Structure formats: structure tokens, C-alpha cells
Amino acid sequence: MRMPRTILVLTLAATVAGCSDIGLRNLRAPGPGPDEFSVLPVKPLTQPKDYAFLPAPTPGGANLTDPNPKADAVVALGGSEAALNPNTAIPASDAALVTASSRYGVPANTRQVVAQEDADFRKKKQRFTRLRLFPVDRYSQAYRRESIDANNANEAARQRGIETPSAPPLE
């Protein structure tokens, strides 16, 4: 009589343990999630130098305090806002870079293609591990061969005579 109860208790414990949350290592998204780029801070209000030369208001148009992240990033990296105009030609200093980076073409759906290839890769890696009694870290399981061991890479570089920075001690 004690043996069936023990088996029942162990089965219940294993079932409850299998329902635990694995947190951020879960590779399947629970939903679309929030859009972290939908809220942008506005620029501070500034007083114009001359009120006589203010532009006419444009209903529904852009405001001087509206955020423009693309233009702000270009200016922060040393470019000019004029370069963002699609009618502006590519500057001569950037022509070689643009030619080299687009020599194989620039597909518009790169993110979708990479996401689909990654989903196919993970599906292939999970083929024989769908049934499990206990929760498994799917991320480590799928990408084990693609991970880089920092200590091994550091040692390999040292063997080739490449100077490397000091690495943290092995754990």
C-alpha cells in the first residue's frame, strides 16, 4: 500500500516541477510584446532668435520639437541632416563604402529571413527532444555548438602569438 502512494507522490512532484517558469531562456515569444520604439521623448522648447521669421504653421505637419531619431543619429555621428534627404546624392567620400556594402544587393526582408532561418534551425535541433519530464534550457540546448568559450579562444590566440588581454580566472 505504501509503494503506490510513494509512486503517486513522486509522479505529482515531477509533474509540478515540470511546470516551472524558465524565464528569459524561453525561446518562444508569448506574444508580440510592447513596441519599445513607440514612445520617444520630445526635444526641449527653445525661444526663436527672431519671431518675424517663424515658419507658417502646418496642420498635421512636423513640429520643431518633434523627435527625429534618424536625423539625430546622423548628426551625432558627424553627418549632416541634408544627407537624409532622399533627393540628395551620396557624398563622394561615402561612395566607395556604399558600393562595397551593397555589391551583393540589399534585400528588404533581411530580418524576416533571418528570423525564419533561426526558427528552422531551432526546430531542427528540437526534433528529438520534444518530450521531456523536466524543464530544459532550450537556448543552451539549441546553440551549444555555436557558443564560443572565451578561455579556449583566448588560449588559441596566445598559441598563435597574438597578444591578448588578461582574462578572468577559470571558474
Describe the model:
The protein has 171 residues and is an all-alpha fold. Among the domains are: 68-105, no CATH class; 107-164, no CATH class. It is built from 6 helices and no strands. It has helices spanning 2-17, 69-76, 92-101, 110-125, 138-142, 150-159. The chain starts with a helix and ends in a 12-residue tail after the last helix. 0% of the residues are buried.
* Unreliable stretches covering 5 or more consecutive residues: none
Q: What is the overall shape?
A: extended
Beta-sheet strand percentage?
under 5%
> What's the total number of strands?
0
What is the averaged pLDDT score? 78
Query: Helicity, in percent?
Result: 25-40%
Region (Disordered): 144-171
InterPro entries: DUF3035 (IPR021395)
Protein name: Beta-barrel assembly complex subunit BamF
Organism: Ruegeria conchae
Quick overview:
38% of the residues lie in helices and 0% in strands. With 171 residues, the protein is mainly α.
Main features:
38% helix, single chain, 171 residues, DUF3035, mainly alpha, Beta-barrel assembly complex subunit BamF
Write the layout of secondary structure elements.
Layout: H1 2-17, H2 69-76, H3 92-101, H4 110-125, H5 138-142, H6 150-159
